[in-house]
Predict the 3D structure of the following.
Amino acid sequence: MSLKLYNTMTRKKEDFIPREQGKVAIYACGPTTYNFFHLGNARMFVVFDTVRRYLQYKGYKVTYVQNFTDIDDKIINRAKEEGMDALALAEKYIQEYFKDADALNIQRADIHPKATEHISLMIEMIETLVAKGLAYAVDGDVYFEVRKFAEYGKLSGRDPDDLRSGARVEVDTRKKDPLDFALWKGAKEGEPSWESPWGKGRPGWHIECSAMALKYLGPGFDIHGGGGDLTFPHHENEIAQAEGYLSAQPFAHYWMHNGFITVNQEKMSKSLGNFFTVRDILAKFPASVVRFYLIGTQYRSPLDFDDQKLAMSKKALDRLINTCALSKEALARSVEDASCAKAESIIAQAQQAEKAFIEAMDDDFNTALALAALFDLSKDTNNFLADYVPCTEGQRALEFVLGTFDKLSGILGIDLENMENVQDDHLVDGLMQLIISIRAQARQNKDWPTADKIRDGIKELGIVLEDTPQGVRWKRQ
């Protein structure tokens, strides 16, 4: 099965055929750096980090670009509230972005361009659009004339005749059409500004991404990604100005957009008071659990958020971690025989898990089904370990299984040896060994009520005791 992805432009899954064989160029819209990034941002960042990892696993050389919008109305307004210089505030939150992104195991992009470092390129693009009659200047501002771009609306599927002013499209009677959007904004007192042919000012939001994507990836690059809320107007406007500038050459071939995050079935927003930054969530849950939760649903589907769902994600992740930990414990035992039953079968099951994982990811990066393959392997491995007697063949089989877990979980950016969990497990394991020894002493003394009370009590806490040939073993339900 070849890799297929859903292209927002064509509204269907398509075979992925890169511009250049063996190479993939990706541009993913980065944050506007005026605050800590929120859970909706995090989903997008994790999704495209996972896409990048899987393409690398498939053997592609990936060039991944993710920008920082470090000049924007939101940054300026927040800087005024905090009494800071706008550019200093933006730089502060760029550094905060990296802290949270690193915690979520999001790999650094190959290039993290800042909008303010590419002003001259944006001015050159705007000059070209004006010269082609696709843009016009008014009192120091410059607007893109939407009606001059015949294909406007092709990404979002919207008819310009039916559209009204959208997000970040200011109502301005000087415009020829309400849908015309700003390419350049004339300077206002106290705001950062740069010299231009139209006087001092700063770029509009949309031109920033078009300029940076073209500079680092060139026209017709492979994948442009972002959250579903960016489809219109941001990405629609990016296409119009970029393809207008390029004289109708395609800007990007595939457009990918992840679904919204909802809170109790309502879209997350500040106005509803259900807005959560990742920094807030990381204060309550391990970063590995947050990432696991974010990839637990196929990226185009909506994802509903609450603490209970994160708690469920932690239990699910712990099952995988526990399987790997038990496998390593088994590997550490002394070998008693050269061969043992089921060694070949667990290798075959690990190979089948990888095959199922690849099939899931090849089908539009379906991480939910990919995780299902890992859980199937976890179940098979636990069954293998239940009556395992250390042997040479079995040890090799377990090494193969652990290698499979490591490879596949790495594609998803999940660390099954996460130190937060390992440290917790060491503490829990120590306590459980103490409880097991107390219960064993009670049974030796034929104090069955105490032994049963211990067994039933810890079962209510989600822990099961198993009697095996090697002694009593505990595991989480």
Q: What stands out?
A: The first strand starts at residue 4 and ends at 7.
